[in-house]
Predict the structure.
Amino acid sequence: MFRFLVPLIIGLALAGLSAFTAAFSRRWGAGGGRRATFILRNLLGIPLWFYGFFLAWVAPARWVIRPDPITAAIALFLVIAGAIPVIWGHVELGFRTHMPSIKDTLISSGMYAYVRHPIYAGGILVLAGLFFLKPSLTVLIASAIVIVWAVVQARLEEIDLVERMPDYRAYMERVPRFIPRLRR
């Protein structure tokens, strides 16, 4: 029942290593750093953790809560609400979401004027929605692990971003990580 944990955790670990673009670039140059990040995140990490999540989804497991029309409505709302910043964030960042570089520039407009990590924030909502869509023990565990990973990954990326873009430190002071402020 818990075999999903192996690819999920290995995938998250590999994707997590992609947060060290500056270190890879110091070792292998800007192009090598970009390639290392791309391979770790897009070719290894994300596919593996998606596969692990899929295994959690299809694993026979007991319900944590009984699915009903209300949980289905909550699920739909959370998945749609989360998908918006995930898609919009990828559009605003463009190619740099898939191949970060030591030469990147800071994006602090659009959604990034309100939260530093809208893709992760939206992903957290999607994961919560997926749990309500299929509230099984395995999906709960997989979702919780990925949510914790997203919080840690955001912090690791911020350490790297401060190194790659000195303006990022001031941006961190102005803009919250995941939840926008009601007043600016």
Summary: The mean pLDDT is 93.
